[in-house]
Design brief:
DnaJ domain-containing protein, Helix Hairpins, mainly alpha, 209 residues
Length: 209
């Protein structure tokens, strides 16, 4: 009986572990890829050691080899990307700078609309993250618009260059054809001149008779 209870306990523990893994996969996927702090469940003041520890613990939970969740690989890749971004000092500084910008803008907006007492607490912090995401999305949209414009300009320049190249090639072909036909034109002119001389001689001969 004791062995049977032990088997049941182990089975329940396995099931509980799998449930925890699946919930963590779902949690990671529910976070925005723009917010690596939320993906790793870390505060903005976290250290490099805390980042590595959080990544190691969570990667063990959601690794595709550890859970049968259909989207485990996607969650794992998102987790790895979050760790990479936060371990990159320049990238992390950029994220924190944008978050601070979002905080300032939102604080000014909420102070005007609601009063200074609302610029604190969990609701405000969640709103800061949403504002940060909106700023990042806007920056990305503007970047893509600039890229499209640059590509369009490059396309116009490329089309003009291609047209110029075709025109240059056409002129070279015309010049080559003109050069190739020079001998024929010279021979034709000589034949024409010879024909004129023969006609003159023939005419003189007739008059002499």
């Amino acid at each position: 009986m004791a062995e049977s209870n032990s088997d049941v306990d182990r089975l329940l523990q396995v099931e509980a572990t799998q449930l925890t893994r699946q919930r963590e996969v779902d949690r990671v996927l529910a976070q925005s890829v723009l917010d690596p702090f939320s993906i790793l469940s870390l505060p903005h003041t976290c250290t490099a050691t805390e980042i590595k520890l959080a990544y190691r613990n969570k990667s063990r939970l959601i690794h595709p080899d550890k859970t049968a969740h259909a989207q485990a690989r996607d969650a794992f890749e998102r987790l790895k990307r979050a760790e990479t971004e936060l371990m990159d000092d320049e990238k992390r500084k950029s994220i924190l700078a944008l978050m601070e910008e979002a905080r300032r803008e939102l604080a000014a907006q909420w102070t005007k609309e609601r009063g200074e007492g609302f610029v604190r607490g969990e609701e405000f912090e969640r709103a800061v993250v949403e504002k940060y995401r909106a700023i990042v999305v806007d920056i990305e949209w503007r970047r893509r618009q600039r890229l499209k414009q640059e590509m369009a300009k490059e396309g116009v320049v490329a089309a003009r260059e291609e047209e110029a190249a075709r025109e240059k090639k056409r002129r070279k072909e015309e010049e080559r054809a003109w050069e190739d036909g020079r001998e024929q034109r010279v021979n034709s002119w000589r034949d024409f001149q010879a024909g004129k001389m023969n006609k003159k001689k023939s005419k003189k001969a007739k008059i002499a008779k």
